[in-house]
């Protein structure tokens, strides 16, 4: 099922994690969140073959890391519209939803705007990490997946912070009413 990010996080069971996906035409970058949904860590890159094989590889990762939901990077155009790449990513997600038999799980998915994620990661790897082109090519997809997932986790953390502040304000108002 497709959810908003907040809905997806609310559906997670105890100690379940989110898996970030950077879906490309040749590879799928993978990153996993810690159980507290604070930090995203890159875990690998899946070389794309046939969808059935890709889904089976994802199923193994889902089992190994106690995944409760997928955050899929959606490559929007700079003006926010969806082009052929976004349509391809949506088709990949739709195929996952239609094949729970391959995943061993009813997929729970949220899309995350991934505009410029790969270029941001590449700029970091060139400027800050001083990586060679060969090394960048080996890690860029999983690092982009971590960048995508971290953005989603940061938004969830901000929502939790705002909700806690609102609860605190409400308690303060109730205390004032009693005085």
From TrEMBL:
GO biological process, one term: rRNA 5'-end processing
Residue ranges constituting the YqgF/RNase H-like domain according to the UniProt record: 16-121
Top-level class of the enzyme under EC nomenclature: hydrolase
Keyword entries, A-Z: Cytoplasm, Hydrolase, Nuclease, Ribosome biogenesis
Coiled coil: none
InterPro entries on file: RNaseH-like_sf, YqgF, YqgF/RNaseH-like_dom, YqgF/RNaseH-like_dom_sf
Subcellular location: Cytoplasm
GO molecular function, one term: hydrolase activity, acting on ester bonds
Gene Ontology CC, one term: cytoplasm
Gene3D superfamilies: YqgF/RNase H-like domain
Pfam families: RuvX
EC numbers for this chain: 3.1.-.-
Role noted for this protein: Could be a nuclease involved in processing of the 5'-end of pre-16S rRNA.
HAMAP family xrefs: Nuclease_YqgF (MF_00651)
Family statement drawn from the similarity comment of this UniProt entry: Belongs to the YqgF HJR family.
UniProt name for this protein: Putative pre-16S rRNA nuclease
Source lineage: Bacteria, Pseudomonadati, Pseudomonadota, Alphaproteobacteria, Rhodospirillales
């Amino acid at each position: 099922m497709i959810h908003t990010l907040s809905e997806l996080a609310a559906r997670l069971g105890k100690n379940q994690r989110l898996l970030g996906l950077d879906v490309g035409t040749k590879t799928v970058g993978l990153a996993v969140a810690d159980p507290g949904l604070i930090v995203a860590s890159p875990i690998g890159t899946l070389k794309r073959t046939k969808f059935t094989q890709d889904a089976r590889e994802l199923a193994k990762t889902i089992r190994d890391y106690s995944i409760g939901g997928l955050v899929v990077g959606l490559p929007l155009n700079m003006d926010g519209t969806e082009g052929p790449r976004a349509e391809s990513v949506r088709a990949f997600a739709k195929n996952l939803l239609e094949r729970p038999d391959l995943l061993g799980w009813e997929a729970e998915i949220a899309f995350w705007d991934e505009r410029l994620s790969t270029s941001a990661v590449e700029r970091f790897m060139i400027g800050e990490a001083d990586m060679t082109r060969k090394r960048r090519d080996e890690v860029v997809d999983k690092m982009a997946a971590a960048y995508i997932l971290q953005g989603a986790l940061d938004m969830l953390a901000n929502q939790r912070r705002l909700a806690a502040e609102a609860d605190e304000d409400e308690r303060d108002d109730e205390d004032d009413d009693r005085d």
